[in-house]
Amino acid sequence: AQKITQTQPGMFVQEKEAVTLDCTYDTSDQSYGLFWYKQPSSGEMIFLIYQGSYDEQNATEGRYSLNFQKARKSANLVISASQLGDSAMYFCAMREGRGNAGNMLTFGGGTRLMVKP
Amino acid sequence: ETGVTQSPTHLIKTRGQQVTLRCSSQSGHNTVSWYQQALGQGPQFIFQYYREEENGRGNFPPRFSGLQFPNYSSELNVNALELDDSALYLCASSLKTGTINEKLFFGSGTQLSVL
Known about the structure:
The complex is a heterodimer. Chain A has no helices and twelve strands. Chain A has strands at residues 4-5, 10-14, 19-21, 24-25, 32-39, 46-52, 60-61, 64-69, 74-79, 88-96, 106-107, 111-116. Chain A is globular. Chain A starts with a strand and ends with a strand. The model of chain A has no long low-confidence stretch (mean pLDDT 94). By secondary structure, chain B is mainly β. In chain B, 0% of the residues lie in helices and 50% in strands. Chain B contains no helices and eleven strands. At the A-B interface, strand 5, strand 6, strand 10 and strand 11 of A face strand 5, strand 6, strand 9 and strand 10 of B.
């Protein structure tokens, strides 16, 4: 089974509107962390936001927030007030606490976000 | 603060050859990991080095090997290149290892094409 599933291969959003990128995960660990990274065409993966499995509140970082629904095993990224510079690939990733190979992250297949002016 | 730098940015090799990719970690970071990102896919973990020793490995064959140097820079070596090795290779560094919330800082990658 896929550990991280991103079901939206591509999405369009109008500039200044909000957009939600979906992510579901699969783990039997109680302790795990969820990450979102942005990958512009330059290739570099840029960290956006982190949510721990024991965190009771949804994480927020500026225009980014994470809608964490633990029972449903979903960790959706919400980008508010989209900007043209938000056009990029977005990856959801998970680090499991048990038997983890160092800092290994398991990534989903990504969602390409395109912001329309 | 210097970020993660990788060299070269692009590389073309033929099947059967060997390749070495290089990575300088972010200042103060002692842990380096390597990821392979095939076209249209998410990155896949190859291995991680901490204090010059491999301390984690993904599902990659032994022809993928690495080194970490005393200054924490790292190399990824791939022997007997295959066409499927064509991918973007990403290096990531982190301040430490073994904590759930540790952020990884990535370089811009080396695009390897195997013909």
